[in-house]
Amino acid sequence: MNGVSRQEGADYFDDLVEDQGGILDSKGLRDYEGVSTSIKKEGMEVRMNCRHCNRTRNVVLEWPELIQIASNSQGRAPILPQGWRFSKNNNSAYISLPCAGCGNVEGFSLHTTPEEAGKDVQKGLTAGFVNPQQVQQIQQQVAAAQRGGR
Ligand SMILES: [Zn+2]
To answer: What predicted TM-score, i.e. pTM, was given to this entire model?
Structure first.
C-alpha cells in the first residue's frame, strides 16, 4: 500500500498532521463511531461507507487480527496484522481498503485503538466466538515480538 495517492484522505494520516494530534484524535473517533458493527463467528463485521462515493461495504475484522491489535503494549513498536499501520498521534491502528465503486484506493479507512480492539475481543469472548486460549497465545506472541522489536 506504499506510494499510493493520498490527496483528499490526507487528514487521516499522521505524517501530514504531525502537529495537530488532538484534532486527528476526535476525527478518528467520530469516524469509528459512525460505522455500525456486529459480532460474528469469524470476527467483527463493520459496515462503512466510502468517503468518496458513499458506497457501502462490509468489512470483517477477523478475531485473530483484533486480538493481535489488542495485545500491543504502549511504548514499544506495535506488532500489527498484515496491511495494518499505526498512527502514533492517536495511538490507533488503521487499515485502508480500496473501493470497488469509485476505485479510490483508500475509500475505506478503519481505525481502532488497542483498547477498543480489546473491548471487541471481550465481546467475542462473551459471545463464545473467541477461544480464550487463542487470546493467550496471540498475547504471548505479540509480547515476545515487541520485546524483540527494540
Ligand atoms: Zn468509493
So the answer is: 0.75
